[in-house]
Design goal:
alpha/beta, four-stranded mixed beta sheet
Length: 416
Amino acid sequence: MQQRHIDRYSYFNELAITSRDFYIDYLEKFVAIKRGMNILEIGCGEGGNLLPFAEKECNVTGIDRSEERISQAISYFKLLGFNGRFIYSDFFDFSSEEDMNKYDIIFSKYVLIVQYIYNYGGNPMIKSMTGFGRYEAADDDHKITVEMKSVNHRYLETGIKMPKKLNFYEAGIRNVLKKYISRGKVDVFITFEDFSEGKVCLHYNEDLAGEYMSIFKYMSEQFGIDNDVNVSTLARMPEVITMEDQDGDDETVWHLLEHAVDMACQAFVQTRITEGEHLKNDLIDKLDNMLELVTRIEKRSPLVVDEYRVRLEDKVSELLSDTSIDEGRIATEVTIFADKICVDEETVRLRSHIESTKATLIEGGSVGRKLDFIAQEMNREANTILSKASDLSITDWAITLKTEIEKVREQIQNIE
């Protein structure tokens, strides 16, 4: 065990130095840290990361699922003469009762959040299915490290790799994961270190030793040889004496493991939110370009009919020379042509699908499946427009539309 895991106040000061030298310096590239700003840290531990914000006279709040760490944070802030609000709570329980919109900055130990979790009027954020989270939790006797990563998948598929002694807690771990993740192929890696001493004992298997001695005696009598087995020889026989771990405090280990998994999940979700915002912004740009293409097609379509009428009249006039043109017949042919190439219904539906996709993105939440369905409908309308196109410009725009829709579908595949 490292010294900082034993001396938590030293660890508190280490976190404060890191926050002062890196977190605040990075944040101030985006926003000036001013007196009176409201700062929230998720998984604050002993509160060291919040100390530099308190030094700048910000209103700091920290939440953590370790009651001991919260107690230490309160004690250390009081010792240094700073005010801080520290709460023993799960993030989701806390956020359900707290006005999250009041916080200017929300961050977690391993993921710095510049944008707000609760923006856009409190709507849930778009999340990518690609993410990474890591958290290390330690007490005087144990250290648990949880790392998790994910890629896109139609459903939730979770793989957990951990030491055998933690297998007992697998069901509990999966329950924690389900609170944070609804889709994606997620791989979780857990390491466990036990720093405790005197937790190992020797076990003497008396029944097995008796069987060995019976066999040795039988062999001696059968072959007429001396039975020269002594205690040392017997003790070296397989499984006669074994080294076993004494049962530890399962509840203590579970609380530490649950905390580590919970905090790793929160960091994991934040990376998904960050990438999800990039995806959303990119998709909205692509959808705006698609709306522009639809507008061009809508404006061009009536002109194609007019141009066809002019070409038809010119051709008929050329063929019939001085003979009068039957305007009724011309009107009929133009009407048939206009009906054949008309894409009014398709453009109306396509525009509606595009607007619906934008609204769904802004609404946020787990919308990946819904967006995938809408993208299929958009592709169907674009195909119909292309099949009806008789004008070179409309054909080019329809092809560009299909290309953009395919790009949108690829991006949507990575949204939870």
